[in-house]
Amino acid sequence: MTATLRAEGVSKSFGGLQALADCSLTAQAGRITGLIGPNGSGKTTLFNAITGYERIDSGQVYLDEQRITGASPQRVFSLGVGRTFQLTRIFPRLTVLENMLVPANRGRSTREHRERAMDLLAFTGIASHARALAGTLSYGQRKLLELAYVLVADPAVVLLDEPAGGVNPSLIHHITDRIRELNAAGRTFLIVEHNMEFVMGLCHQVTVLDSGSVVASGPPEVIRTDPRVLDAYLGTEADDA
Amino acid sequence: MANEALVVDSITAGYGGGDVLHDVSFSVPAGQITCIVGPNGAGKSTLLAVISGILKPRSGQVLHRGERLSGKSPREVLRAGVVQVPQNHSLFPDMTVAENIELGGYTLRSRALVASRRATVEGLFPDIGKWEKKKAGSLSGGQQRLVEFARCLMLDPAVIILDEPSMGLAPKILSGVFAAVKEMNAQGKTVLLVEQNARAGLRIAGRGVVLENGRVRLTGTGTEVLEHPEIGMLYLGGSSGTRNHHGPTA
Predict the structure, then answer these.
(1) Which of A44, A199, A202, B51 stands the most exposed, by the fewest C-beta atoms within 10 Å?
(2) What's the CA gap between A54 and A70, in Å, rounded?
(3) Which residues pair with residue A83 across a beta bridge?
């Protein structure tokens, strides 16, 4: 129930804009890998490329030894790669529990489905909201619902797009603990996040994107002091301003 | 205090349940460029919303030449001479450059004043005269930024607030935009600049302020802040969160 997810030499352009240029990234089986970079550096595009939401111009994506380049989002998901989105995608007018049952046999949920859904809601800490409309959840609780939702299919690899963004500090700790527990059981994580304390405290390995290129990869303590990473975040000076 | 164009004094502000800014204090010296930098989520946009009167602070005050700005409506803040150029894409793309610039003078009653201000602005940025009949949306990103500057100059502001003018611009274009910022400053305008490109922004700034997690973490001259050994930690984590900070240096 674990796997390595690998992108090799992935490139993608939108019109004249090169969003990704020869990007390689490995989310090692059983590890938590962070993907960081300034605004507009290509993090979400790379996520989309890996999970089939975006066609890539060149390069390959592998799940263990299986090539999944160009596979549809449904196919990638069914192979065991689950993901969340930066802006949560829940059904606001369904209850929290109903949201959890959407992936189960297109609505024909069994008692096992419901039990598993409730277990996952308990695990993420929002079981008491099971009967509430999802639209009434706080932003942080929506993130937890998305995490629970992704776990329904029991994916080997979980991609999280800004799990801590806009979430209050006490819920961030809760999310960190849940990710650690899931990871301790072997699950692979790839996480895009701007909150550096969160990333540096949680991830085993961090890859840094800047303007669509990978500028560094390594353990957090190395990434933190890498001058190329600092350049990415502090910017480069105008030519002769 | 006499030479402070803006004093931000112990501002705490936020939306809904939580505070985004915690006891933020710094000052903007008159006639200089002050640059605020900080990682995503530091509270830079919230701070500008407070200064422009869009968001009421929970406590603290903003002073402009000794006069209290906080509590005023955005329109009154404009009238006091504090004008903000918003982040990116704030022109009406289907209107001409000339129409966009004249809209900057929307609150002015006198046609003659609008005309004379336009002449002044085009004297400062001569290129703009060449584009005036073009639709604003057809200009390049750097050109649009200049038109936005020109539009804000129509009110002859004392303080110009620029929200991330480098956003989305290639380094080559950036130098032209920053040259225009320096030019407005040379004409006597106080500039408060918020920049994601910290190095480029701090390099042209007399005063630098680093905001992180809703607090002022570092202040100093632009160069001091730029070369401060802790600036990297503030962006990449590892900060203790209990660092001393300087209040307004009056």
Answers:
(1) A44
(2) 8
(3) A159
CB contact under 8 A, A238 and B18: no
Task: Report chain A residues whose CB lies below 8 A from the CB of B235.
Answer: 196, 230, 233-234
Residue B166's domain comprises 31-42+80-236
Is the confidence at residue B5, as pLDDT, over 90? yes
pTM confidence score: 0.79
Task: Identify the architecture of domain A5-88+153-234 in CATH.
Answer: 3-Layer(aba) Sandwich (3.40)
pLDDT digits (tens, 9 = 90+) for A60-102: 999 999 999 999 999 999 999 999 887 778 899 999 999 999 8
Cβ–Cβ below 8 Å for A224 and B237: yes
Enumerate the residues of chain B whose CB falls inside 8 A of the CB of residue A200.
Answer: 236-238
- What is the rounded distance in angstroms from the CA atom of residue B44 to the CA atom of residue B7? 16
Report if residue B155 sits inside a domain: yes
Backbone angles phi, psi at B15, to 5 degrees: -120, 145
B-chain residues near A212 (CB < 8 A): none
Residue type, B225: V
Q: Residue B35 maps to which CATH number?
A: 3.40.50.300
Average pLDDT over residues A26-31: 97
- Domains of chain A: which residue ranges? 5-88+153-234, 91-136
Q: Could you give the residue ranges of the DSSP H alpha helices within B19-73? A: 44-51
Structure letter (DSSP) for residue B132: T
Nearest-angstrom CA–CA distance, B120 and B130: 15
Answer whether B178 touches A (CB < 8 Å): yes
Q: How many domains does chain B have?
A: 1
CA angle A150, A152, A153 (to 5 degrees): 85
- Nearest CB neighbour to A238, from listed B18, B40, B178: B178
Query: Does the structure show a pLDDT above 90 at B235?
Result: no
Q: Is B220 on the interface with A (CB under 8 A)?
A: no
